[in-house]
Amino acid sequence: MQKTTRNTISLAVLVLMLAPALSYAADSVSSNVAPLAPTVKPAPAPLQPFPAVKADEYKEADVWGRIRTGYAIPDIDNALVTKHVNWYSSRPDYIARTSARASRYLFYVVQELEKRNMPTELALLPIIESAFNPQAYSKANAAGMWQFVPGTGKDFNLKQDMFKDERRGVLASTDAALSYLQRLYGMFGDWPLALAAYNWGEGNVQRAIKKNQALGKPTDYESLYEHMPPETREYVPKLQAVKNIIANPAQYHVSLPVIDNTPYFTTVDKTSDIDLTIAAQLAELSVEEFKALNPQFNRPVITGGEQTKILLPQENAAKFHLNLAQWGRALSTWTTHKITGAKDSIASLASRFGTTPEVIRQANNIPAQTRLKAGSTILVPKISTSVQTDIAEHVVDNAVMAFEAERAGRRGGRAEKQTNAQRIKGKVAELKTRVAGRNAKTAANDSARYKRRGG
Predict the structure, then answer these.
(1) Methyltransferase: present as a keyword of the record (predicted)?
(2) Active site residue 129
(3) Are 274 and 308 in contact (CB under 8 A)?
(4) Distance separating alpha carbons of residues 265 and 104, to the nearest angstrom
(5) What are φ and ψ of residue 148, in 5° steps?
(6) Tell me, what DSSP letter sits at residue 260?
(7) What's the angle, vertex CA 199, arms to CA 145 and CA 108, rounded to 5?
(8) Smallest Cα–Cα separation from 180: which of 266, 122, 240?
(9) What pTM does this model have?
(10) Beta-bridge partners for 301
(11) Which residue out of 129, 166, 202, 234 is catalytically annotated?
């Protein structure tokens, strides 16, 4: 009797846990049957969050298994999928490097997807976008592991200033990416089309749908191939290829490293400006590992008030607080200086603030052979580290930097051209003198020969 009761309770719990997923799957199926035109199609039902479930209540020991259980985007199977399956499965080193980077972020991304009742295979999208590299930067100026261009980043309130670029921030960019994907799904009612719009833009997808509708053609993702650029045409097949490999790595002779189904990092409050190197030291992390979790910070000092958080591995957060309490020194060695005119050269600033031109250029990402225009705000070392004043919020929000070619270089260039011209002129004069000398000597010899002959 007790055994029967336990089985009944287990079955009831399982049904309750799966109910949202089953409801979501039903929504996905019905959305494939309805017309796909965004101007005609009614908006899909709002996505309902998963019930709160603790990580230790999952049967899966690692995040890969947790992702597999939440697959919900309809599969596609075509030559492009096969092409990318072969590409990924034949590169174990690439998969290993990408998985190592992903191990820091995957638990958090999957958790956020489940909160929004979104398909968990979307957690694999950064593999396609950036190979899970939050420092990735494209030719189109897209940044971060979710690859936001500046304009779309601003649309989703991702702050981009001299000190910070939240397109690279783990928490902010993930929240923005999932919000964007949800919005696109609301427009198209279809995840493949939403993904196409994420890559290509919703306006382009809408126009492609209208073209096919006008021709009486289907408007699903694969039916729009002819209108898509190659990158978008292969976008969902790439994700499908990764899905296939994660679903059954042994079938493709791939070995996935275990990624624990537990949080990798936690958030830590920052109470004042702190040098990035000092923060890493207090957390007992390498600067490289610290930047991997906090890639949004552009400068060697982390500014901002209480809303600015830093991410640390679980075991290092406690070390950070303990070491911070015992630090007893300045947390920041940087302040700002506003360029007022031509007298503020990099060399003069270095001398004034007791450092070298190379340090100032590196701290501010100032290109070689350039100088700062008036109005630029830059970081300089604090002359006295006993001064604990933080960089003012309005300075952080409004700081800009502009460059121009070094004037000395241009003057030097003109002088060099003048010197070359004078050198050439001198050579020509010397040559003329030699020629004139030769001609005079020749004329004298000719005259002598003429006289000897009795001329």
Answers:
(1) no
(2) yes
(3) no
(4) 7
(5) -85, 130
(6) B
(7) 35
(8) 122
(9) 0.77
(10) 275
(11) 129
Give the strand pairing for 309-313 and 301-302: unpaired
Q: 175-182: long-range contacts at Cβ-Cβ below 8 A with a sequence spacing of 24 or more? A: 175/112, 176/146, 176/148, 177/125, 177/146, 177/148, 178/112, 178/113, 178/116, 178/118, 178/122, 180/152, 180/156, 181/118, 181/122, 182/47, 182/116, 182/118
Residue 440: Cβ within 10 Å count: 10
- Cα–Cα distances (Å) from 239 to 83, 101, 123, 127, 452, in that order, read 12, 18, 10, 8, 101
Residue 99 corresponds to which tokens in the numbers above? 């998985």
- Could you read off the pLDDT tens digit of each residue along the chain, which spans 455 residues? 444 444 443 444 333 343 444 333 333 333 333 333 333 344 444 444 434 444 444 467 899 999 999 999 999 999 999 999 999 999 999 999 999 999 999 999 999 999 999 999 999 999 999 999 999 999 999 999 999 999 999 999 999 999 999 999 999 999 999 999 999 999 999 999 999 999 999 999 999 999 999 999 999 999 999 999 999 999 999 999 999 999 999 999 999 999 999 999 999 998 899 999 999 999 999 999 999 999 999 999 999 877 899 999 999 999 999 999 999 999 999 999 999 988 889 999 999 999 999 999 999 999 999 999 999 999 999 987 556 689 999 999 999 999 888 865 444 334 334 434 444 555 555 555 554 555 544 444 444 443 333 43
